[in-house]
Amino acid sequence: MHSLSLKIEPQAITTSLEEPGHFWLVANGFLSTGPNITITWERDEAIEIQPKSITISPSNRTLPFEEHFPVQVTSVLQGRFLIRPLVLPPTVVDDSRLFTQLQVAKYQPLIILSMLIGWTYTVCWTIGDYFQAWTSFKRKSVVGLSFDFLHLNVVGNCCYATFNVLLFWNNHIEVKYFNRHPFGLNPVIANDVAYAVHAVFGNVVLIVQCYIYQSDGNVVSLPVKALMSGYVILVAVFCALALDRQLHWLDFLYMLSYVKLSTNLVKYIPQVFMNYRRKSTEGFAISNRLLDLAGGLLSLLQMVLNCWNYDDWQSIVGSPVKFGLGFVSIFFDVVFMVQHYICYNNRKEVRKDTE
User: Fold this and answer.
1) Residues 265 and 202 both lie in one domain
2) Which of 5, 260, 317, 341 could form a Cys-Cys staple with 160, CB 3.0–4.6 A?
3) Strands 37-41 and 85-88, bridge-based pairing
């Protein structure tokens, strides 16, 4: 059992060339006897860290203590760096979280621009469902909106929200994640949780409208019912294994993320087919897809901008699934644009003669 814990806060720092970044080395616990604890830094010609070393003396530390040591870091090269101090002697120290990830940008203004782009595409993706809800509300009808698309979407977003909520708030799962990724950070932040939960809310609103407005006999198709049943069985089996401790809850969350990925690949197909069959996009809010397209393009722009600014093109190569899914979404958005503005631009919804 380690009597002294050392960690760095924050564990992610962003700065620009030759602009200093700051972090704290935090020591807490007991250190009543033994030699001094000395913390130094690995030599790197691109990075300068001050002070060069930090010494913690055991004198007068018989009670639990917490002490913060300020540290400044400067880099002459852009890129991503892992700062991992050296601790001597290491025998009484828990240094499992003693690191920080340093991102050094070429231009500081591009960091701000990237943040603005991020907030913009988040807003685009967040408000999209409201345009569809407003369209259905005005028409008092959901004719033209694929129930298959909506139900696959809510399944995927429920899995995504569960993944984010548990990984963000459950300390047991987070510790397991850190054990598997010793120098990793929690990939979920508060914004991710809020966005995912809000997405589920938006999906539920649209599905409720399906059952209170005119639908013209529109229902969830048998193939999609079968697919959703398969998802439910898969989730139930993995949940049972996790409850029986045959599987860690982190692996259960990974399974949920794969369900989300798979729904993203297929969920648009039913809506495309419905538009084709009806030769119309009436009832399907194209503004939703315009916002989704704008968000997708801005997301890719941010990714490329960050890669150039941080000289980190590996982040694209290292995340082909995420990058590919972005293009899948953009591809279907373009298909919807073509259907709405070119193929069926002059078509009107065929209404039944009730007289």
Assistant:
1) yes
2) 260
3) antiparallel
